[in-house]
Amino acid sequence: MRILIYLCIALLGYQVCAQNKETLYDFTDLPQSLLLNPGAEIHFNRHIGIPFLSQIHLNTGFKGASISDVFADDGRNINDKIENTLNTLTSNDYFTLTQQLEILNVGWRSKRNQDLYYSAGLYQELDFIVYFPKDFAVLAYQGNQDFIDTPFRFSNISLTGELLSVYHFGYNKKVDKKLTFGARAKLYSSIINFRSTKNRGTFTTVETPQGNNIYQHIISNADVNLRTSGYASLRDIESEDISDGAKQVINKFLGRALLGGNLGVGIDVGFTYKLEDQWTITGSIQDLGMIFYTKNVESYRARGNFVFEGLETPISDGNGQDVLEELEEAIPIDTISRSYVALRPVKLNGSIKYSFNRYNDGTCNCFLEGEDPPYQDAVGIQVFSQFRPKRPIYGASLFYYKRVSNFLRTKLTYTIDDFSYYNIGFLLSTHFNKINFYISANNLIEYANLAKANGASLQLGFNVLL
User: Fold this and answer.
1) Alpha carbons 325 and 97: distance in angstroms, whole number
2) pLDDT, mean over the chain
3) 45 by DSSP, 3-state: which?
4) Which of 264 and 213 is assigned the larger pLDDT?
């Protein structure tokens, strides 16, 4: 319990936030678009992100339900609402939480070759997903009386979580008037990781009228695992002072963030291609890489079979301790300190857009010498996918970009994804002299009552563009 309190206090120092940044993708007025597509077409010579303020990204979502489904003040009995929600949710529904805090982001155009643009930086990321354990939620709430001969599957248990820092260096080259290509090398330093995936086995209650008891409870071919890295040393922190314990956790986190954690490598690749003057397609792959967990590794695995008999569960029939001892002997929990490797959750982006209405009032100093003036308006389609433990998740957006003036640019999106069929997003970017400020949010329709929302996203930041 104490370690959970420490972790919560430590994480309060971070801005908590899903990965699809539909408003920011291909918004090339901002340097952050290079983090989504290193091959984005950009039109500034240098950029400097204000440290710790250049990108704060928050996005969370629950596929399948919302807080309002259970806690809405609608006169219905809360037990009925819980049961209805349980019946609605499936084992493929999930809760996800992803956050990014950009610590440093800089970029510069090569003096020797104006077609080359380099960028580098450091950001911290939190990524968490847990699938709804449908079978065991039903078992816990409704019991097994109405589910004789129905297997409850351990494969329902699936979750991953990662807190890490990412060091990156990007290369962007305008190959010719049509093609811009880019790549970004990444070095990951994991702070803490846990994952429980690909679990197997079942728990089933069957009738045995010919036996000593009417019912028999069978755990069959169980194979359940939990891998952790960075947790064991935190668990060993002993302090009666919560604030001192939190300080120790934060110090460990900082050390791991500064390349003292488990390391990994990855790459982003992207491109922009002009089909003709007004039609453009883009595409990118992010986080094609892996992390090697070799330090502070502790995994737990339970494998085996077990059978017990009785009308009730073993904990409630008076012999609970004996049964638990037999269960532990039949299905022991092994603690393993073996290294493991995990792939990063790869993300794919793509878009096609049509630009129109050139911007050229004679005062715009907003594009590189020799280039045509930019367009004021653009419409298009953008798609997104991210690999997850059970299946990929998807999103598709229609967008409208508007350059109101050299000072003000906007983007409006309509997105269909796992969380909503009517997700409206909006990005506002202001450019006052060399200072840029942007703010973006999605699912705006639901902001009037966030309890009914399945997801919400917010991001903002400050840059200096030269």
Assistant:
1) 37
2) 86
3) coil
4) 264
Asked if 129 and 389 count as a contact pair (C-beta separation under 8 A), the reply is yes
β partners of residue 186: 168, 266
Given the structure tokens 């029939």, which residue do they identify? 317
Strand pairing partners for 161? Answer: 128, 194
What is the crossing angle of helices 78-88 and 134-142, to 10°? Answer: 150
DSSP 3-state percent helix, strand, coil across the chain (nearest 5)? 20, 50, 35
pTM assigned to the model: 0.88
**How many Å apart are CA 17 and CA 15, to the nearest integer?**
7
3-state secondary structure (DSSP) of residue 135: helix
Greatest CA separation found in the chain?
A: 93
Q: How many other C-beta atoms are found inside a 10 Å radius of the C-beta of residue 377?
A: 14
Helix (H, G, I), strand (E, B) or coil at 304: strand
Q: Among candidates 101, 93, 96, which has minimal Cα distance to 18?
A: 96
Report residue 352 as tokens. 């096609």
Considering only CA atoms, which of 317, 302, 124, 133 is closest in space to residue 217? 317
Task: State how far the Cα of 115 lies from the Cα of 171, in Å rounded to an integer.
Answer: 11
Antiparallel, parallel or unpaired: β 262-274 and 215-229: unpaired
Q: Could you write out the DSSP letters of every residue in 412-431?
A: EEEEEESS-SSEEEEEEEEE
Per-residue pLDDT at 232 exceeds 90: no
Structure-token pair, residue 154 = 């351990």
- Alpha-carbon gap, residue 130 to 128, rounded angstroms: 7
> Which residues touch 208 (CB under 8 Å, ≥6 apart)?
214, 215, 216, 309
- The encoded tokens of residue 270 equal 């992207």
- Predicted local distance difference test score (pLDDT) of residue 9: 33
Which residue type does 286 have? Answer: Q
Q: Which of 296, 245, 191 is nearest to 6 (CA)?
A: 245
Question: pLDDT at position 236, please?
Answer: 76
Amino acid letter at 346? V
Residue that the structure tokens 């508007």 belong to: 402
Residue 139, helix vs strand vs coil:
helix
Alpha-carbon gap, residue 461 to 429, rounded angstroms: 10
H helix intervals, 20-92: 33-36, 67-71, 78-88
Instruction: Give CA–CA dist 54/279, Å, rounded.
Output: 30
**Per residue in 302-323, is it b (16+ CB within 10 Å) or e — as a string?**
beeebebebeeebeeeeeeeeb
